[in-house]
Amino acid sequence: MVPQLREHIERIVPLTDDEFVFISSCFTSARYRKHDFLFREGEKVAHCYFVVSGLLKLVYTDDNGMEHIVAFAMEDWWESDFQAFFTQVRATMSLQCMEDTEVLCITLADYQHMCAGLAKMEHFLLMKANAGNIAAQQRILSFLTSSAKQRYEQLLKRYPTLLQRVPKTHLASYLGVSRETLSRLYRGN
Amino acid sequence: MVPQLREHIERIVPLTDDEFVFISSCFTSARYRKHDFLFREGEKVAHCYFVVSGLLKLVYTDDNGMEHIVAFAMEDWWESDFQAFFTQVRATMSLQCMEDTEVLCITLADYQHMCAGLAKMEHFLLMKANAGNIAAQQRILSFLTSSAKQRYEQLLKRYPTLLQRVPKTHLASYLGVSRETLSRLYRGN
After folding, report:
1. Can you identify the CATH homologous superfamily of domain A3-128?
2. Coil, strand, or helix at residue A3?
3. Contacts of B101 (CB under 8 A, 6+ apart)
4. Residues A165/A74, Cβ–Cβ less than 8 Å
5. One-character DSSP codes across B31-79
6. How high is the ipTM of this complex?
């Protein structure tokens, strides 16, 4: 298993070699090419993903065929359609590669097995889930209060590397603005 | 300690009497009157709250003095400014009573003490945090994809009792629409 996962976990909880062997046994590794789908809307979602390298987009396509980006995920991020993964309903969103991407995959059964077998992983996952809730509360706040310009500036401040890696049409979709509005923001008008 | 907390936890994990005595020792109880603040923007956030009875609103006030409702919280819900609570920065939001409200309060130190002392509470809190992430992902999605009318209908479907308890100005603020737009939705136009 890639050492990156161990480093990632050990930022929160220290692990013995045996514990990391156990954790590793709960994951499988997979590689995808740019444009590949990890899952599509309407499918079952078998895995939650840890991104080793590359870039993913979590996408909802509305009745008019318009694509909305709910989230990006890059190195060291966890991503899935959480409702579909945790409650085993069909996906309402799709997860697609924006670059060639390597992920570690865990099933719900292995997620539960890992938590039951190692209390410190439950602690680690609680810390990550709480951090996810903080980020979500901030994003909800930004939709309620901020102009497109402010949302754009917040995104650049929080995730400066995204600007280099994500095409402008995708940034616009994430921010909930048109491509034309985003172009005006780029020019600083 | 109120039996309601035990019932709430036991929907996910069974508890012995001794375990519930330990859990209860981590909380204090408090009662507030309608319009009281549990904390205000700019203050330290000492507690995460479990609502026993009543109704709270988590509010952000922008530079123009306009109030935006990030979340409501009623019986059996957990609420706080999660960034302020978990990372001990000052609150960017305020938590205020919309009705007379009884809450159970836990400090960050007691939250950590409770998790370290009882692994099944860490499991319970992880399940709640994951459910919170599902709800947040759905709310982000609704801002990206839905019209005000659809957001209103989703809210009523998910939390039908809110309509009876929350004044229309507050519903409008939660949905990110004007009071006039909401009135049109009520009339079905």
Report:
1. Jelly Rolls (2.60.120.10)
2. helix
3. B31, B32, B34, B36, B51, B53, B54, B55, B56
4. yes
5. EE-TT-EEE-TTS----EEEEEESEEEEEEE-TTS-EEEEEEEETT-EE
6. 0.86
pLDDT digits over A74-94, tens only? 999 999 999 999 999 999 999
Chain A hits for B149, CB-CB cut-off 8 Å, are none
Tell me whether residues A140 and B70 touch, CB distance under 8 A. yes
Length of chain B in residues, anyone?
Answer: 189
- What are the structural domain ranges in chain B? 3-131, 146-189
Note whether B143 contacts A143, CB cutoff 8 Å: yes
Is residue B161's pLDDT more than 90?
no
Q: The CATH number of B3-131 is which of 2.60.120.10, 2.40.320.10, 1.10.275.10, 3.30.230.70?
A: 2.60.120.10
pLDDT in tens, B121-130: 999 999 999 9
Which residues of chain A lie closer than 8 angstroms to B72, CB-CB? none
Cβ contact B90:B53 at 8 Å: no
Q: Which residues of A touch B (CB under 8 A)?
A: 60, 62, 68-71, 81-83, 86-87, 92-93, 115, 119, 122-123, 125-126, 129-134, 136-141, 143-145, 173, 176
Instruction: Of A71, A60, A37, give the one whose Cα is nearest residue A175.
Output: A71
> Which residue among A123, A144, A145 places its CB closest to the CB of B122?
A123
Query: In chain A, what is the straight-line distance between the N-terminal and C-terminal CA atoms, in Å?
Result: 48
Determine, for residues B68 and A141 on separate chains, whether the beta-carbon distance falls below 8 Å: yes
* Residue in B123, B134, B144 nearest the CB of A60: B144
Cβ proximity of A149 and A48 under 8 Å: no
Helix (H), strand (E) at residue B105: strand B101-106
Task: From chain B, pick out residues whose CB is under 8 angstroms from the CB of A123.
Answer: 115, 122
